[in-house]
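Narrative of activities, Objective 1.

The group set out to show that a structural description can be obtained from nothing but a protein's sequence at a throughput compatible with the screening campaign. Below is one input-output pair from the validation batch, recorded exactly as produced.
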Amino acid sequence: MKTLLITSLSILIFGSALVLNVQNDPSKNKKEKQSLASIASKHKQLYGMSCIPMSVEMVLKYNNRVAANYYKLQNDWKNKADGTFGNFDGKTLSCLKFKHQFNLTRGDGFPFDRLFSRIDAELAAGRKVIVSLPSGNNFWHMYVIDKKTVSGEYIAYSRYYNSKDVIIKNDVKNSIYGCRGTDILTYTIVD
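Output recorded for this entry:
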């Protein structure tokens, strides 16, 4: 009887210590990342001109830095027509520090190889890249590059204002060549 009591107490103490250890282990409390496609399907663009902050919010959501119902950046921006990636350059939001890159003249001298190497490095590090691409005549829209295909193309996601559909762009690299260059917004984790 005494052995049974000691064994029971040992199991209870060991089990409690194990449960406490798991609960206090920060790696066990980290929220698992959803796919960017899943984030995009639940996200929306609130204003006609809020695609830049909309894409930044998607990145914040992908990295589990804000709640699924977070739209503060778009609500602050509203229909700001003169905004650029420069509005987020050097800003730290929820421990992600953003950097505007390749803000260069488009054309024959654009450094495509450097741009694509930077995008590849970001994706290899597990980070997404926000890219500006043409969307109609003299309009641009922002997309979040998710991955590189085996053929070397990039796949990106976005949302349009007043649309229930997720925009999937399977020819990002081709679009960049077509517009003769573009700029990107990257980030690093600073927590």
